[in-house]
Amino acid sequence: MCNKQRSRKMFFGAVAVCGFPYPIAHACSVWDVPGLSVNDPLPVVMIDGADRNSSVKLKVRVASSKRSGFDFGFVNDGLYTPITGKSHVRGSITFTGGATVDFALRNWGPDHLFGTADDLVYRLSDGADYAQQYYFDSAKSSQLFQSRNPRITFGDFQELRLDWDLNQDGKTDVETWIGVKRNRYDAMAPAAAPVPVPSTMWLFGSGLVVLATALRRRMSFEL
After folding, report:
1. pTM of the prediction?
2. Residues 6+ apart with CB under 8 A from 191
3. Among the listed residues 134, 60, 147, 135, the one whose alpha carbon sits nearest the alpha carbon of residue 104
4. How many structural domains are present in the chain?
5. Minimal CA–CA distance to 36: which of 45, 223, 185?
6. Are 156 and 18 in contact (CB under 8 A)?
7. Cβ neighbours of residue 68 under 8 Å, at least 6 residues apart?
8. Which range marks the domain in which residue 13 is found?
9. What is the full per-residue pLDDT of the chain (223 aa) written as tens digits?
């Protein structure tokens, strides 16, 4: 296992070589295994491989010096669902291939009870960017085109580590490991960030609308 600082030192600029289209992605190497670091608050896409089922089964482990106060799950439509169960440390879950999952970490709050109003939920998609994502165990080259839902050509990963920095002090408070369970084809990948439209394009489009309106009014006046 490599810590956050060691992982950052191992990054190298080979994104173009690996073929990852994400502008927020960096290539790294851990034990000579290609990996991917994601700095933006993005959810995770479940990739169903060419197997007999259409789902992706994951195993989860939470590591923290204060792990009794945390559990791990995901948020859907504003509702938090735990994955780690009663142990709050380990768990498993199955998602449909192609699903976009907003993983989340939950703290039990001042009353030290889960499921009450003072719980604190930290989502991957939160703009505060609470978690650094590290993807490992890239699919072998012979498997890159085995995916079914979604179809991908840029690679996929079977292991994901989330380093949660909840108080934004640059130190990892909770570490979460997520892995594909007993399937060599299913995988995970960061969801693609929306591509913003440049302001010049908006201005150009607005100018066309104004011009069309002016021409229409002129034609109406002449008639």
Report:
1. 0.70
2. 42, 43, 44, 45, 100
3. 60
4. 1
5. 45
6. no
7. 88
8. 4-222
9. 444 433 333 332 233 223 333 333 333 333 334 688 998 899 999 998 877 788 999 999 998 766 679 999 999 999 999 999 888 899 999 999 999 999 999 999 999 999 999 999 999 999 999 999 999 887 654 444 466 666 665 557 899 999 999 999 999 999 999 999 877 778 899 997 544 444 444 444 445 444 455 555 444 445 5
The span from the CA of 47 to the CA of 44, in Å, is 10
3-state secondary structure 10-49: CEECCHHHHCCCCCCEEEEEECCEEEEEECCCCCEEEEEE
Backbone angles phi, psi at 214, to 5 degrees: -65, -40
Q: Distance between CA atoms of 12 and 17, rounded to whole angstroms?
A: 11
